[in-house]
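ok here's the first one, seq then struct tokens
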Amino acid sequence: MAEKIIILDFGSQVTQLIGRRLRELNVYCEIYPFNKVPALDSSVKGVILSGSPCSVRDKNAPQIDLGGIKGRFPLLGICYGAQYLAHKFGGEVLGSLAREYGRAMLDVVDPESPLLKGVSAHSQVWMSHGDTIARLPEGAEVIASTESVTNAAFHIKGEQTYAVQFHPEVFHTTEGTKILGNFALGICGCKGDWTPASFIETTVASLREQIGDEKVILGLSGGVDSTVAGVLLNKAIGHNLTCIFVNNGLRKTAHIVVGLDLGGDAHPRVEASNLYDAIWVSANCGDEAARRLMASMKNATPLRSSSTRCATNKMMRPSAGRPIFRRASRRSAGA
């Protein structure tokens, strides 16, 4: 099982950037809502708590039980995650006199800290919070400060628990990737050998294991998410996959054709007959689009002249209009 870092999302608008920075370091990660913590097995190398638009002092602030995480796995709190660690374990978080938003200069207090190894003594970071940590929890030590934030980064002694009140994942934190690399590669011990290609291999293997000989129906909009899901499922289970193209009315005609055909220099070509057991083509595609699609489907035959109307969650019956097509025969797995 591939090693990974778990990111627990408290609603920050830049949580996805944390994942992106880790992938740039060739580290695999998975993002989960704070209230849907997955089972943490031996493949988990560390956990990151994201930021949040909420305040830890709010009555309905996001809460999480860290009993099975803190002290057991390397842990990094970012912004809200840092303040939550302080607030939850005996420190004090107060409202700032003025919201701290924008660039700040970070001064490294402990250059020997594993989190700040190789980070410049003075570097730019990005702040975005209305609260500040006024007092650290017992056993915590300051490892970096800014002019207005004394506890900008801290470490809890005896644990691999770290926290930063700035955002290392954003572009404006000039050495943020270095800090995340110190956590993922140094503290967590990730090998840094993950690639998108290995993700395809492990995902296809996982899908085969989960699905077995079951049949799968996939609603396909022609967008990136559903198309990638379709390609991966096709690699995993082949003819046991049935894809239905659903025109939700939000895509342009050209996008519908490209989504089905994936032709052109910018994308690898995927023959429609290799991917679909059933394809419904909207009347919006037009005659030329229908001919292009038909040409790409070597084993396809027209059913009849009609059109389709689709709702997001419901396929309506076709009425008179332009052609729709259906696969004439099944193909073997992996075709």
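and now the second one, same deal
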Amino acid sequence: MAFETILDVLRWKFDIGEVMIQDPAMDQLDEEFVREKGYTILQHPEAQNAIDETTFLFCPCIPWVTVWEFLIVGRPCLFYGPRQEDLEKMMEMQGDGGGTKEDEWNEVFLTFKGGRKSVEIAVAEAYQWPRNELVWFDEGSE
């Protein structure tokens, strides 16, 4: 619901083309539902190759290392996912992802957020962590 609501709002201003979805947790029923909605399903790691400056990267509750991998290969124009603070907390809890150092992570995320604005998205009281944020390109910046 949240994803489609955000898409509906974006469609007021932008011409949204093909919508591609990758989620390793989807089963066959999920995939049928997503296809019936008119979306294209990608298998891992296809999504990484599809990220560019026109991408809306919607990834709530995603492991920090996956966000890092996505932001390394592309700079999406819109990102919905865990806040930087929560991604760093996940990094501490889950380990370094096979050699990724905290300073490397910070460089990637800060480079991505440079020249962009963000806002934390309100969540239900029962769902406290990780909190998600919406990050977008500020047309007024370089």
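notes on #2: The helical segments are 2-11, 28-36, 46-50, 64-73, 84-94, 102-113. The CA atoms of residues 19 and 131 lie 24 Å apart.
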